[in-house]
Design brief:
By secondary structure, the chain is an alpha+beta fold. The protein has four domains: about 140 residues, GAF domain (Beta-Lactamase); about 110 residues, Beta-Lactamase; about 60 residues; about 150 residues, Histidine kinase-like ATPase, C-terminal domain (Heat Shock Protein 90, 2-Layer Sandwich). Helices cover about 40% and strands about 25% of the residues. A hairpin with a 2-residue loop joins strand 9 and strand 10. Helix 10 runs parallel beside helix 11 and helix 11 runs antiparallel to helix 13. The longest helix has about 45 residues. It starts with a helix and ends with a strand. Keywords: Kinase, Phosphoprotein, Transferase, Two-component regulatory system.
Length: about 500
Amino acid sequence: MSRVAADRLAALTQVGARAACAMIHLVEGHHLRLIGGHDLPPGFEPLQQVPVSSTLAGVVLRAGRPLVIGDVEGDERVPAAAPVRAVGIRAYAGFPVRDPAGAVVGVCAVMDYQVRHWRPDELNAVDNGAQACTAFVAEQWAHEAEHQQRLFLNTMLDSLDTGVAACDADGRLVVVNRSLRERLELPAEITHLDKWVNWLPITTPDGDPVDRTQTPLRRALHGTEVRGTEFALRTRDGRRLVRVNAHPITNRQGRRLGAVAVFHDITEARHAEYLQRMLSRSKDEYLNLVGHELRTPVTIILAYLDAMSDAEPDTPAAELYPVIDGARRGSERLRRLVEALLDLSALDAGRTPLEMADVDLVAVVTSAAHTAEDQAAAKNITLTRTVPAAMPLRGDAARLTQMVTVLLDNAITYTPDGGTVTVTVAGTGDTATIEVTDTGLEIPDDERPHVFDRFFRGAVATERAIPGAGLGLPIAKLIVDHHHGTITISTSTHPPGTTMHVELPRTS
């Protein structure tokens, strides 16, 4: 209640009680606050700083019932230090002001300078004034409770990572919580549903336009519940997938008051589902491929062992050597597969950290090329090197040698007999490059993005039954990644061939 309104209520109470003056007090902590008065005695307001216990209003507060005094001087209930004594007041009538719970929170009172006997209608006027103040307190409590509830609700909504938007029955946006407002960078002028649906940066998950009349909040405002509809939103964090639920808001009589829409960000969940599908597929491919690759050498070993067990006891050792050699080849193939799997796992998990040192990349490439010479010669493949005198950098010599060996082995394996494989080293002050180029068959466009995928086997390898488990290039890529470098592949048709291009920083 404003001071003007409280003063008018005090004046009406004064007139109704035919008193000299009237006042309205409310409790404020341990003090009384004068919120309204009419014709108060000169100097009365400065006396309000005395303790509540020394005032007549304090007597009303303690007793919780009206206090009617005909003569202040002769009534023992009047405290000795009561302010009314200092300003010449002789008669007093005060009624309690209560809150909605019934507790006394103030006093509405009238006073007179003459000793008097208060008539019932006069006291009734004071009681009516107190009742009016009680109604005001109840209204203030309701407003305060509503304010607190709204403050609580707004704070709760703003603390959510989930986006929330709501409008009233006329389409005015009454809520857009912090999460949604900041993610969308909502302009201040977007305050109505019509502008909202036209501005909202929304598409289908596939990127197709959305019918603006079918946006969730608009549909809910027209009475339709929307559940689990998925959209893509363009936000400050990039494209996000959201699942939207929207509901009409109605009162108990069913009259529509507005609508609310809730935006759940499911981007990470969808990505996790995708990764789970990829993991499941990779596991299946792994089991199929590794099962096949393991079964083949094991079958070979068992076959040769069976042949040895079927041989006559007096069979000359010379006749068994080929069988033993075949079993040995199967065992070696099995060992290489197991070592590759363990090596890939160790690199992936970081269990084998790089041993960084000053390395000459030319020496690394030369060593790997010498190792590959016998393999190239067996297929009549010309293996050439184009290297500078030296190319120093920081790296793990053993791992870099392993990486170049994998690239050369891959190039020789997929190059037809009589072809050419060339390894080139070059560089600048900051970067060293290795290129391994072969004259093998061109890799199809659809296979090229997958050559570094684990267990990937191209159509050529499958058709020609080229042995391998699809682990060499993934290991090579991990080694390059651990050196903070890049590895890419390119192919050409004229002349046919494939080039593996590796870039490594020369300083770590």
